[in-house]
Amino acid sequence: MIDSRPRRQFLRFAVGGGLLALSGLLLKSIFWPSPLDVAEAATLERFADVLIPRDELPSASDLRLVPLLQAGAASDRHLMRLLRRGLSWLDGAAQRDFGHGYAELDHESAERIVRVAAAAPEEAVERIFFERARIELFSLYYSRPESWPGLPATLPPQPLGFIDFASPPRS
Length: 171
Known about the structure:
Blueprint: H1 5-31, H2 38-51, H3 65-74, H4 77-98, H5 107-119, H6 125-142
């Protein structure tokens, strides 16, 4: 008679190991989302340039803000998930309204979609994406000295701080 216990034990370990590996991959995708792909990065680049276009000061793409934002989002899974959902919304709206991806739109069409996101209800994904991405991008933009010309401040207030903080406000 052939003993089938080793075969059953092997199958049990193989199936259990496979399930363990799959659950690990699932948890990894939830807690450590992958970086943005090329199409998502291009959409984010276009969105950033709509928010911060080039005029007498550099644009968001001139200062390479999108790679900085992506690096910050790599360690913040909530931000990465929000970026993905917002970028998906931008592309969907562009496809629906103009028949092209968001990254391929001209400035006016891209700006029109951003206005829709900005005017959406506060609890809508597109509005949350717009608000958070705008805050992140402008924080990165104004942290760069290239964006300071024309501002009344020539230095950031720190590390020196506000020297006259103990004095009464000037009128």
